Amino acid sequence: MAKPKKVALAYSGGLDTSVIIPWLKENYGCEVVAVCGNIGQGDEELTGLEQKARRTGASEVHIEDLRHEFVTEYLWRLVRSGAVYEHKYLLGTSIARPLLAKKQVEVALQTGCDALSHGCTGKGNDQVRFELTYKALAPHLAVIAPWREWDIRSREDALAYAAAHNVPVAATSTKIYSRDRNIWHISHEGGALEDPANPAPDDVWMLTRSPRDAPDKPGEVTIGFERGVPVSVNGQHMFPVQLLEALNRVGAEHAIGRIDLVENRFVGMKSRGCYETPGGALITTAHHELEALTLDRNLLHYKQRLALDYAELVYYGFWFTPLREALDAFFEKTAEANTGEVTLRMYKGNLEPVRRKSPYSLYSLDIASFTMGASYDQKDAEGFINLIGLPIKVRAAVSGIGIPACSDKKQS
User: Exactly one of 18, 117, 178, 271 is catalytic; which is it?
Assistant: First the structure.
């Protein structure tokens, strides 16, 4: 492809994207527009970001506050779906990438860029998530993926390049975890974590207390939902970002939301990472408990199957697709009755439901109670069992299946 003149770079200020700015200028002779989205990664990562990008060669820097959009248009959709990847992962990094890439494309088009670039490695999932978004929203723009082009083969190589080009970075050769943080979670990869036989070192965890240091007394939190969306904490209505931040604090104090996961990447390999999702774990658990009250069996079970598909769709980067939009319409329909409150008890990393209530609850005490009620005649169960068991009974008769009758004669 012809060398681009102006490139929009998805910029985080981390090791990879920090060295990409001088690398692009050195190898392509282009202007670099750094695009960063504030999705709740915290002041520590955002402070001084513009100055750092300009100091390393960016001609423009755009830092956009995307927190409200991230929570309401991405995370709440994820919550409604019930999607969890491979039983554990609450998709904190996966769900953020389409939004960041969308904003990058918008800035690129506004500033006259003719190419897009990212700092994703050629072995990971993020390259797919970013580039599928590019294809959906700006297929005419060229894509530069430095990790698939340059001679840098490790984070140690990247550190050496940064030192040679006077690029300040926080990573070091002794503490070389790769982290991604937003308002939903933080992920940790690399270093000692690359060997799944190694226990996660204590210095990995950043958001949550260790269960050993969590309060000795259990804590409780009540989350209120309207149509499947969290709206209150302990009876107090909150704005979406405020609500999630409050639950992050509560969950982190009680060591909620830590997972250590060996996962299957989309590109075909296994990887090991540690994740902290304190508020997300509380919300996801509470939402599941509310659905147990409000959805009938067939709908709930079918939704659980689709949730697996949605988790894969998000993990693989297929956000801007008709399938995701269609599934969202289904989950929005299932959430119509998901209004109510769920109280959870937290204790040293453990979560248990305490109370569940909803004006749309399908739970009937008259029917479910062991005490005989007028709404359910237990004699009806005989006919029910006979009908559903009829095919089994017929097959047994035709096949000659059965247990021989016991003989009363004693063997000699």
Answer: 178
The predicted pLDDT at position 178 comes to 85
Task: Say whether 328 is catalytic.
Answer: no
**How many Å separate Cα 238 from the centre of its chain?**
22
Q: Domain 181-365 class?
A: alpha beta
Burial class (CB in 10 A: 0-12, 13-18, 19+), 366: exposed
Q: What is d(CA 121, CA 383) in angstroms, rounded to the nearest whole number? A: 62
Query: Which strand (E) or helix (H) includes residue 341?
Result: strand 340-347
Q: Is 115 helix (H, G, I), strand (E, B) or coil?
A: strand
Q: In 139-250, at which residue ranges do the beta strands (DSSP E only) sit?
A: 142-144, 178-181, 186-189, 219-226, 229-233, 236-237
Residues of the chain with CATH 3.40.50.620: 6-175
Handedness of CA 164, 126, 229, 276 (dihedral sign): negative
Number of other CB atoms surrounding residue 153 within 10 Å: 9
Q: At the top level of CATH, which class does the domain 6-175 belong to?
A: alpha beta
SS3 245: helix
Catalytic residue from among 77, 97, 181, 324: 97
Q: Give CA–CA dist 129/132, Å, rounded.
A: 5
What predicted TM-score, i.e. pTM, was given to this entire model? 0.92
Q: In this predicted model, what pLDDT tens digit does every residue of 165-203 receive, in sequence order?
A: 988 877 666 667 889 999 999 999 988 999 999 999 999
pLDDT of residue 77: 98
Which residue do the tokens 């402070």 mark?
47
103-159 confidence digits (pLDDT tens): 999 999 999 999 999 999 888 899 999 999 999 999 999 999 999 999 998 878 988
User: CB count, 10 Å around CB of 309?
Assistant: 14
Residue 97: active-site member: yes
Buried b (16+ CB within 10 A) or exposed e, 97-115: bbbbbbbbbbbbeeeebbb
- For CATH 3.90.1260.10, the residue range(s) in the chain are 181-365
Query: Long-range pairs for 197-201 at CB < 8 Å and ≥24 separation?
Result: 200/260, 200/274
Annotated catalytic residue, options 77, 126, 129, 155: 126
Assess whether 126 carries a catalytic annotation.
yes
Contacts of 65 (CB under 8 A, 6+ apart): 38
Backbone φ and ψ for 316, nearest 5 degrees, come out as -80, -15
List of E strands, 162-242: 178-181, 186-189, 219-226, 229-233, 236-237
